[in-house]
């Protein structure tokens, strides 16, 4: 990650673009959902490309390109390289852009197996895998330099609006280094692992969502990705103590952020011990 050190010319109004790659659009909606703040932002910057909201100028030169989604096709690779070449800063948002997202679960299998499964879900004649597919779903950072990242599935609306302002004013966007447990403690939330013996990944997952799931009485499933100082060995030992099998624990981490190194690599190592 970088500090915003390239000058942005406010005399000309900064230009922003929002790009979608393979994704569900949920992170773009998180930005649109707070319409008042978005309109306020539009009084300070020119939003030149944001297909979900209207403006279209995909390869315009911009100060900030915000990217949702993962890279899945050769066409995606071409597009992200073009976007990067035209942007002073690139901000990746959401689990799809940061780790490949739920679609990266296909990285654990091969095309033949995928085609077999697709016929369990779709009619025989449906061609789900399209021409030009890459063998794996990968994050944006696998193909181009990314300056800043915001985790979440979806991202938090307040966080993205703050990050945009911070980047434009030359400040590095804040990062959450604490796990979800910290928010639970500050907010006085009853721990679901202690009170209900319900598995919760909060001790190893980055905060940023305001502990939504524990506040609703359910365990965290890890949509913000790994916390900075995640102790995976202790987490796995706790889940085993609660009666989960190795396979069940593996599935807990092979989910939205399955390709995050902390979840992908450490789980395989710990379970094989
Ligand atoms: S990170 Fe989640 S909400 Fe955002 S685009 Fe991907 S699947 Fe949708
Ligand atoms: S509910 Fe989950 S996130 Fe909250 S304190 Fe307990 S283990 Fe941590
Ligand atoms: S508690 Fe966990 S799963 Fe729920 S929104 Fe927060 S990070 Fe995502």
Automatic annotation (TrEMBL):
Keyword Oxidoreductase: yes
This protein's record includes keyword Oxidoreductase: yes
Molecular functions (GO terms): 3 iron, 4 sulfur cluster binding; oxidoreductase activity
Keywords annotated in UniProt: 3Fe-4S, Iron, Iron-sulfur, Metal-binding, Oxidoreductase
Cofactors demanded by this protein: [3Fe-4S] cluster
Pfam family, one: Oxidored_q6
Record-linked InterPro entries: Hydrogenase_assoc-protein, NADH_UbQ_OxRdtase-like_20kDa, NiFe_Hase_small_N_sf
Gene3D superfamilies: NADH:ubiquinone oxidoreductase-like, 20kDa subunit (3.40.50.700)
Identification of the protein by name: Sulfhydrogenase subunit delta
Lineage, highest ranks first: Bacteria, Pseudomonadati, Pseudomonadota, Betaproteobacteria, Neisseriales
């Amino acid at each position: 990650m970088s500090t915003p050190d390239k000058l942005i010319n406010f005399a000309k109004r900064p230009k922003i673009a929002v790009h979608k790659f393979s994704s569900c659009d949920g992170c773009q909606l998180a930005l649109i959902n707070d319409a008042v703040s978005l309109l306020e932002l539009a009084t300070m910057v020119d939003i030149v490309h944001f297909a979900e909201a209207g403006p279209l100028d995909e390869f315009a030169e911009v100060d900030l390109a915000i990217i949702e989604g993962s890279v899945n096709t050769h066409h995606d690779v071409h597009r992200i390289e073009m976007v990067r070449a035209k942007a002073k800063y690139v901000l990746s948002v959401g689990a799809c852009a940061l780790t490949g997202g739920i679609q990266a679960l296909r990285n654990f299998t091969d095309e033949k197996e995928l085609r077999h499964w697709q016929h369990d879900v779709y009619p025989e004649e449906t061609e789900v895998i399209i021409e030009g597919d890459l063998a794996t779903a990968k994050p944006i950072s696998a193909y181009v330099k990314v300056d800043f990242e915001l985790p979440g599935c979806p991202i938090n609306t307040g966080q993205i609006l703050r990050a945009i302002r911070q980047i434009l004013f030359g400040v590095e966007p804040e990062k959450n280094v604490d796990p979800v447990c910290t928010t639970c403690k500050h907010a006085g939330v009853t721990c679901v692992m202690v009170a209900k013996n319900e598995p919760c990944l909060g001790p190893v997952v980055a905060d940023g969502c305001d502990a939504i799931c524990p506040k609703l009485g359910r365990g965290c499933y890890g949509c913000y990705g790994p916390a900075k100082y995640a102790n995976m060995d202790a987490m796995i030992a706790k889940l085993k103590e609660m009666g989960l099998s190795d396979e069940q624990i593996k599935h807990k981490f092979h989910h939205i952020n399955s390709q995050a190194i902390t979840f992908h690599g450490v789980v395989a190592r710990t379970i094989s011990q």
